[in-house]
Write a structure and sequence with these properties.
The complex is a heterodimer of chains A (112) and B (112). By secondary structure, chain A is an all-beta fold. Chain A has strands spanning 4-6, 10-13, 19-21, 23-25, 31-38, 42-49, 56-57, 64-70, 73-78, 87-94, 102-103, 107-111. The chains are: A mainly beta (112), B mainly beta (112).
């Protein structure tokens, strides 16, 4: 089974801190994604990547950046955390063709 | 601009009865649709999908119906079980196997 691992389940950070959320997948998938989930808003795409060193903006990229130096790892960076970035962050990966996404368990980030 | 909409934020159904979750979309380029199920503190898991060349797909207790002319799909669960209590997201893709657009989710509660 494909496994997508997010490094932290819960994080509490202070406003203004730089925050790194890490995601690793073990099935050699080309595509990786970062979403955030908020009540009433569903899952919204932040950034995605189709290949190493490639990145594309999703629907809500403001305040975020990403890094994909290795195929298996996709990092989400909050340059200066703000309280409106308190959310559940979900990483996903998919291979070529249609197989849908496999999601990680999520990181619940609280910015105080 | 919400391209995939789930207008019912919550639904309560008795055990053994049918659960019907609805989803509407606006983008006529969408041609592949999926349903994901999410438990608290876990990532979404794939449930069932349907291609636009079909109007129905069945997998055990789960059936997805697609009405392309109405830009509407629905997920039927019968019989509903307490373990089905979760948040259900519908998602759509333009067939490029690239990125999914998710709805806002419907919280299903199956009562005894």
């Amino acid at each position: 089974d494909v496994k997508v691992t997010q490094s932290s389940r819960y994080l509490v950070k202070r406003t203004g801190e730089k925050v790194f959320l890490e995601c690793v997948q073990d099935m050699d998938h080309e595509n990786m994604f970062w979403y955030r989930q908020d009540p009433g808003l569903g899952l919204r795409l932040i950034y995605f990547s189709y290949d190493v060193k490639m990145k594309e903006k999703g629907d809500i990229p403001e305040g975020y950046s990403v890094s994909r130096e290795k195929k298996e790892r996709f990092s989400l960076i909050l340059e200066s955390a703000s309280t409106n970035q308190t959310s559940m962050y979900l990483c996903a990966s998919s291979g070529q063709g249609w197989g849908g996404y496999t999601f990680g368990s999520g990181t619940r980030l609280t910015v105080v | 601009d919400q391209q995939v909409k789930q207008n019912s934020p919550s639904l309560s159904v008795q055990e053994g009865r049918i659960s019907i979750l609805n989803c509407d979309y606006t983008n006529s380029m969408f041609d592949y649709f999926l349903w994901y199920k999410k438990y608290p503190a876990e990532g979404p898991t794939f449930l069932i999908s349907i291609s636009s060349i079909k109007d129905k797909n069945e997998d055990g207790r789960f059936t997805v119906f697609l009405n392309k002319s109405a830009k509407h799909l629905s997920l039927h669960i019968v019989p509903s079980q307490p373990g089905d209590s979760a948040v259900y997201f519908c998602a759509a893709d333009t067939g490029t196997a690239s990125k999914l657009t998710f709805g806002t989710g419907t919280r299903l509660q199956v009562t005894l």
